[in-house]
Specification:
- The structure is a single chain.
- This protein is of the alpha/beta class.
- It has two domains: 148 residues, 3-Layer(aba) Sandwich (Rossmann fold), CATH 3.40.50.2300; 90 residues, Arc Repressor Mutant, subunit A (Orthogonal Bundle).
- The chain is built from eight helices and 13 strands.
- Strands 3-2-4-5-6 form a five-stranded parallel sheet, with helices on both faces.
- The chain starts with a strand and ends with a strand.
Amino acid sequence: MSLHGGDSPPRGHSAVNAAPTGVGAPEAEILVIDDERRILNFLSRALRAEGFGVQLAADARDGLSRALQEAYDLVILDLLMPGLDGMSVLRSILAKKPLQSVIVLSALTDTDSKVACLQLGAEDYLAKPFSLDELLARVRARLRGMARSAPTTLSARGLTLDVIRRAVDSGAGPIPLAEREFLLLQELMRHAGRTVSKEQLLATVWGYYFDPGSNVVDVYIRRLRAKLGAMAITTVRGEGYRVDAA
């Protein structure tokens, strides 16, 4: 299957940032930045069908903001966008997050554009029109490479999180965690030393890209504190929660 200028968008999948469908945590979180809504819809449907969590940005500045403020396993980036070009977005992302994996997906097919993106730090470049099968193969190849080099533990002040066993050790031996407890603590520890907003936690842990008016984050923070101690997670009033780095 390929997508080009004459293809129609998939029906029934036009909502940007709809919560992932299916059961369980997504295999990986992917951000797609492209000003063409039909391509966003097409990729959203295809990537979700493969088990990935997907966020979509139809504006370059919005995509850059998301890429810098949230954690993604992979970013798929268009180059030709109004207002802010994709090359500038790529440069800004990798200046702040040099380890961020980025695949460029662009109608620009000239060698200079490809070389420039790869020199800036993009890991792959695929020209439009593209084969969906090829794109999915490249996505999986990038994610496999990351998995081989990904750490199996996360450490923060007095805490060690084993991401394989989904258990945390605060100094008295490993403590098993329920799925949402693990995902919540993992998100906080991936951003150790920084405050993570309730909105970001709702998006990354529960798949809510809006505030449902629920206190579910607070409930799970209390559960983690009951297991790890009241000082393990700091509440930053009006902003979110933080696990100290050291």
